[in-house]
Amino acid sequence: MPTTLYILYNANASVMGKLNYGYRKLTAAKDQPACAACDITHGGLHLDETAEWKKVKEDIAGSGNVELKQLHRDEMGAEIKQYVESKGLRYPMVLADDGQRAGYKLVLESDELSACGGNAQHFVQKLRDKGVFSDSSSL
């Protein structure tokens, strides 16, 4: 059974959520991005995913052992929200669920995503460092 990785954005998917994110993005300090996950997948204020991210997603899907889901705060199910709240986690983040009884596991915290500097390849390397992908995988 493949592991599911959840990229949880620090933004809502609604029109008001996008406007709120845009404001936060424009007014945030450079070292504290409004949503580092958004920077990695969409290059910040773009509505479309970057070409680099699309390639990484394709490679992740092709690995066969990881399924990727990207969720805004208002798209998450109650189970994920409850996990995040019970652990006192800060958005954005990446969670993993291997489908076993263990449930969700925090893979990358907000600060770790920020350290990627919006670079999808740095994101993949952090996942490798955490053991999500092996060094021999094609990612």
The gist of it:
The protein is an alpha+beta fold and 139 residues long.
Description:
With 139 residues, the chain is α+β, with helices and mostly antiparallel strands. The protein is 42% helix and 16% strand. It contains 6 helices and 4 strands; from the N terminus they run E-H-H-H-E-H-E-E-H-H. The chain has a 4-stranded mixed sheet with strand order 2-1-3-4. Strand 3 and strand 4 (104-108) form a beta hairpin. The mean pLDDT is 87.
Largest sheet: 4 strands, mixed
- Number-wise, the strands total 4
Please tell me how large the radius of gyration is.
14 Å
Low-confidence stretches: none
User: Percentage of helical residues?
Assistant: 40-55%
Compute the number of helices: 6
Helix/strand/pairing category: alpha+beta
Order of helices and strands: EHHHEHEEHH
Features of this protein?
single chain, 139 residues, 4 strands
Describe the secondary-structure layout.
Layout: E1 3-8, H1 15-27, H2 36-42, H3 51-63, E2 66-71, H4 78-87, E3 93-97, E4 104-108, H5 110-114, H6 120-129
